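Hi D.,

Good news: the full-assembly prediction came through. Inputs first.
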Amino acid sequence: MKIVVWNENRHEKENEVVSSIYPEGIHGAIQGFLEKEGLDVSTATLDEPEHGLTEEVLNHTDVLVWWGHQAHDEVTEEVAERVKERVLEGMGLVVLHSAHFSKVFKKLMGTSCDLKWREADEKERLWVVNPTHPITEGIGEFIELEKEEMYGEHFDIPVPEELLFVSWFEGGEVFRSGATFQRGRGKIFYFRPGHETYPTYYHTDIQRVISNGIHWAAGLATPKPVYGNAQPLEPIAGKTAAGR
Amino acid sequence: MKIVVWNENRHEKENEVVSSIYPEGIHGAIQGFLEKEGLDVSTATLDEPEHGLTEEVLNHTDVLVWWGHQAHDEVTEEVAERVKERVLEGMGLVVLHSAHFSKVFKKLMGTSCDLKWREADEKERLWVVNPTHPITEGIGEFIELEKEEMYGEHFDIPVPEELLFVSWFEGGEVFRSGATFQRGRGKIFYFRPGHETYPTYYHTDIQRVISNGIHWAAGLATPKPVYGNAQPLEPIAGKTAAGR
Amino acid sequence: MKIVVWNENRHEKENEVVSSIYPEGIHGAIQGFLEKEGLDVSTATLDEPEHGLTEEVLNHTDVLVWWGHQAHDEVTEEVAERVKERVLEGMGLVVLHSAHFSKVFKKLMGTSCDLKWREADEKERLWVVNPTHPITEGIGEFIELEKEEMYGEHFDIPVPEELLFVSWFEGGEVFRSGATFQRGRGKIFYFRPGHETYPTYYHTDIQRVISNGIHWAAGLATPKPVYGNAQPLEPIAGKTAAGR
Amino acid sequence: MKIVVWNENRHEKENEVVSSIYPEGIHGAIQGFLEKEGLDVSTATLDEPEHGLTEEVLNHTDVLVWWGHQAHDEVTEEVAERVKERVLEGMGLVVLHSAHFSKVFKKLMGTSCDLKWREADEKERLWVVNPTHPITEGIGEFIELEKEEMYGEHFDIPVPEELLFVSWFEGGEVFRSGATFQRGRGKIFYFRPGHETYPTYYHTDIQRVISNGIHWAAGLATPKPVYGNAQPLEPIAGKTAAGR
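Then the structure:
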């Protein structure tokens, strides 16, 4: 299984708080804990040619992890469409935190993906509402993060196919923090935590959920369905020569 | 409640079989049976300025019914985006037959919306799989259509929020023929039947389902959620002056 | 539409705090605000013969509202089964607060329906996560209750068909507070608030949600499906005289 | 992973057609192809003490496969409840064909689980409607069975959490043939095919689906949620000494 971690990688260059927490970048931190599991992980970032997501790279990617925030608009329409098409063909996609507003996620959801937010160093507690799912495997009743950005309802996404986590925030809001979707032959997992100014991706439960999500999202060995004009499988009484 | 029935209205101009079945156009036939119920219904077609879907028209439309087939690409990106945005704001959308491939439906679904098809004058039987839903109210166990175009699985849509009808086809396929989705504050109903060369829209059960779908899809008097930066509703111990 | 509000009606007799808040009983308070809307509402309680839920009564009930807590076990198996069967035949059911543990709800869910709870006069904020549903119509972004009993995840119910409200609690938990289910031809709405020691059922938003839920749950004019041995609708090549 | 295949094992004793197709019993045939995969599989049947499902056996079972038909009522209430409780605690359950009417499945679903049926040696074609699911992995667009019993809609089950297969029948019906449900911490897969008078369980695609279903349904290493009275995780302003 080949994994690519994509990161905008701008905050790390512009903000010392972020670069001190993530000296290798958020992508580097995620690559780090995934490689410790023995996974095959490479990275790609916004400022590389084609954002590091060439046809060649995507055609050999089983699961793509996406983190973006301030520069969603700098992702070219061409690359965003290319990634979307690969998801529809079966590439898994793990969408982290502010990537709820990425072009790729919005194209796949069909909604604004808008939400409430607040930066106030407040406590978040992610409650497991589905303890039977492989993505919550090994996690206790909740994950507690001392300081995170708040995301609050209403979260303008389609009704998730599976709701896995619901967050409680110190400031009074709740949020559907872990949700899955299918699009085409691709599986998508949205996971809320991971604001750039907090060491969230060093939290072992957060790492476990992201790793579980990658394994869940990986494509399966199922033949691609056939679309288009089809010959009948059974005799048709009234069959005519009608063509399209 | 204000309803607009949109139709591509090309087959009716180019094909005598179609114009003989639908002398007022498919839009005219649908408007006809809806008005018999006392509903306020107008129509719009592809060749009108802005396809008849100006900001003014859409801002006063509660439910839009959409039929298109051979000229999906002639619908301008601007109008397709405008309609999509209105759905996200709460306008109901009833998508008929080959409109599964319309720009508007594909943008809202995020998938290819592809399927199998065959024109062979074959029998279709739409089975009700959800007898508790307002859209199937008043319909018996199934609706039988002597001759229709076949649409077969796999139908490349997101998992429907509600599956209402499953079709049996004489030639050996099945199809998820009636399905609902939510996007933003808008409700969407996809209903399969209605190939232009058959008098499907004169079938009283088909009319009942479309009418039920319109009533189900109409927007509700619920305040629009507030998005963006939010003040805390509860005191936050560690609150800082951190801004974005 | 005929509505019956069922209440255990024991706390009201044994606890002065409860009887001072609900002098007519919880059932009386609910009947009161529903009748103000012009609805046809009667009540039934545990200590009546057959708990007030005779065949005669149930056969003429469109929607049953259920509140119970300390005496779930005193509801006879016969009446619990009778109510369950009526729901499967199309009677709507609105399940309030501690009725999550009622025999009827547990039989319909197939799970333990267990949860976390705490009585600490704490604040609850019910967030609307589905602003397109008729049950949330007219409600703002959330409903705030100054003091309520806490119910916390994990709530051991099947995955709801529709999730409408998620509660935030002052003490740190979240809860899926408004959820819908279908069983047979019946529609079920579970709504969390309403501990007996608080005046929750006098809150106008709570009243609106219960009223919306009753209208949503009311049965529809759809024929009952036919079950059992069926004759073929199409010729079968290999048909034999095989019997069961 | 420990698998137990339970079978009523009555048709095999009473009907020569069945015993000639399944000389080792349906349970033996299923055990046979599962063991070829190297799985640890034992069997249990109705006429064994406690139907072969003692506390001891169930406590060491990860996934239970269930086939029953003519003697559902002979399964004792005690054993049916015991199996149900084990599913709620996390044991996977694969429910085959006429076991839709088993006590265990009906208790877990909360509905009648009724359907249409016909024995006419007719063709069934199971179409994959979800090609992204591990249970459909490796299966093509459909599975064709030359002769099977027909099961037709309406199938009176709760809305499946995941719909995987839809069957087309020669006689004109459709059926939701593969569906998943969660109850408590247990995962349930219902799979339609397998009438006793046909060699369905020797079909390699049917074997693959049952095997996939078993792997999908196996319990995960997630801690059991804690239920009951809970201490607050956060300070509560209005906290009182109120007890229950």
